[in-house]
C-alpha cells in the first residue's frame, strides 16, 4: 500500500522538492579515536534511515565551504542536505533533508533508473546513465530538476554490458573529467575515458582484481591524485570495498595502456561496509585529508544506506610521486592481519 501511494504521489508531482525525515544510527563500537583501516582511519560511521523513496545512493557532490551535500540515487533522484564537518574531518551532522526527482522521464527511460555518478558542472551536474552509456547535464530550474542536454556520449567504448557502464566520474581539472566503467574487459581491465568538453577519448584501462569493480572516483587536482572506490560481493565474504589512489597525470599518458592504483585500505562487514558506491574527497579545518563514502541499499530491506568518513594517514605513501605504483605494503598488511584474525 505504501509503495502504491508513493508511486501515485510522484506521478502527480514529478519535479516537486520533497522534505523528508532522515534518522541516523551511529556505528556501535567505533571509538572516539576511530578505527584504523590500512592507510586510513574511520572517524565516523552511521546508517541512515528514511521514507520508502529514500535510498539507492551512488554519487556524492560534497561542498564543505557552503556546507552542502548532494547524493545521487540510481532512480534519478537527488538528496540534498546541510552538512557539518568537524575540525578533524568527522561527519557531525546532516540536516534539512530534501529530495528532488527529475521532471517526468527526462533523465532516462524507465523513470530515471541507473543513474550512477555525479560531477559538478556549470550550474548543475554531469550525471552518468549506465544503461545509456552517456553523461547528461542537469540542474535545478525553479522547483524542478531538469536535464538540459546529453553532454558526453560514452557509447563508443566497446565491450560494455547494458548494466555495467560508467559508474565512476570525477573532475580532474577545471575543464577535464575522467570516467571509469564498472565493466571490465578481459576480466580485469576497466575502460578509462577522458573528456575536456570536446570528443571523449579512451585513454586506457584501469586494472583491478577480478572480484572487485570500480563504483566511483574523486579527485584532488592540486596534488595530482585520483581516489578510486571499488566494491565486491559474494555470499561467503559479504560486501567488501577498497579505496585506491593513483596519479591523474598518469591517465593522460596511458596511450591505450593499463594503470594500477595503490591500495589504501579495504573495508568489510566488520567495518560496517555495505554496497559502497559513492566517494568524495575533502579537506577539514585542520588541513587533514578525508574521504566521505556512501552505500547503495538497492531499495532492499536487508541492505543499508551507510555513510562513513575516512581520514588519510600521513604514515602511508600518499604523495603524488608514489601514488599509482602498485599495492601499498602497509595497507595490504593491515588487511591481511584483519582477515587472518
UniProtKB/TrEMBL annotation:
One of the Pfam families matching this protein, by short name: Phytase-like
Basic and acidic residues composition bias: which ranges?
330-341
Q: Where is this region: Disordered?
A: 318-341
Residue ranges of every copy of the Phytase-like domain listed in the record = 53-299
Q: Which domain of life is it from?
A: Bacteria
What is the protein named? Answer: Esterase-like activity of phytase family protein
Amino acid at each position: 500500500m505504501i509503495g502504491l501511494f508513493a508511486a501515485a504521489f510522484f506521478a502527480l508531482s514529478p519535479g516537486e522538492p520533497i522534505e523528508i525525515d532522515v534518522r541516523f544510527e551511529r556505528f556501535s563500537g567505533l571509538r572516539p579515536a576511530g578505527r584504523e583501516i590500512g592507510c586510513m582511519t574511520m572517524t565516523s560511521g552511521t546508517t541512515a534511515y528514511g521514507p520508502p523513496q529514500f535510498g539507492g545512493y551512488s554519487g556524492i557532490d560534497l561542498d564543505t565551504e557552503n556546507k552542502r551535500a548532494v547524493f545521487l540515487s540510481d532512480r534519478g533522484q537527488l538528496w540534498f542536505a546541510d552538512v557539518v564537518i568537524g575540525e578533524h574531518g568527522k561527519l557531525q551532522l546532516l540536516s534539512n533533508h530534501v529530495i528532488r526527482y527529475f521532471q517526468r522521464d527526462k533523465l532516462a527511460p524507465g523513470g530515471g533508473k541507473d543513474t550512477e555518478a555525479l560531477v559538478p558542472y556549470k550550474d548543475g551536474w554531469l550525471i552518468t546513465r549506465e544503461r545509456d552509456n552517456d553523461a547528461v547535464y542537469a540542474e535545478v530550474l525553479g522547483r524542478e530538476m531538469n536535464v538540459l542536454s546529453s553532454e558526453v556520449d560514452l557509447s563508443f567504448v566497446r565491450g560494455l554490458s547494458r548494466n555495467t557502464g560508467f559508474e565512476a566520474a570525477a573532475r580532474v581539472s577545471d575543464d577535464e573529467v575522467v570516467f571509469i566503467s564498472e565493466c571490465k574487459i578481459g576480466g580485469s581491465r576497466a575502460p578509462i575515458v577522458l573528456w575536456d568538453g570536446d570528443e571523449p577519448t579512451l585513454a586506457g584501462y584501469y586494472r583491478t582484481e577480478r572480484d572487485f569493480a570500480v563504483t566511483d572516483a574523486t579527485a584532488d587536482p592540486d596534488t595530482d591524485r585520483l581516489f578510486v572506490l571499488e566494491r565486491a560481493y559474494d555470499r561467503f565474504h559479504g560486501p567488501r570495498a577498497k579505496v585506491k589512489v593513483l596519479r591523474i597525470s598518469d591517465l593522460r599518458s596511458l596511450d591505450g595502456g593499463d594503470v594500477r592504483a595503490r591500495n589504501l585500505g579495504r573495508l568489510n562487514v566488520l567495518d560496517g561496509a555495505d554496497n559502497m558506491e559513492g566517494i568524495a574527497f575533502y579537506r577539514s579545518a585542520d588541513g587533514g585529508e578525508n574521504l566521505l563514502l556512501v552505500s547503495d541499499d538497492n531499495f532492499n530491506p536487508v541492505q543499508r544506506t551507510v555513510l562513513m568518513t575516512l581520514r588519510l594517514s600521513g604514515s602511508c605513501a600518499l604523495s603524488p610521486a608514489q601514488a599509482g605504483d602498485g599495492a601499498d605494503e602497509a595497507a595490504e598488511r593491515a588487511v591481511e592481519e584483519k582477515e587472518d584474525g
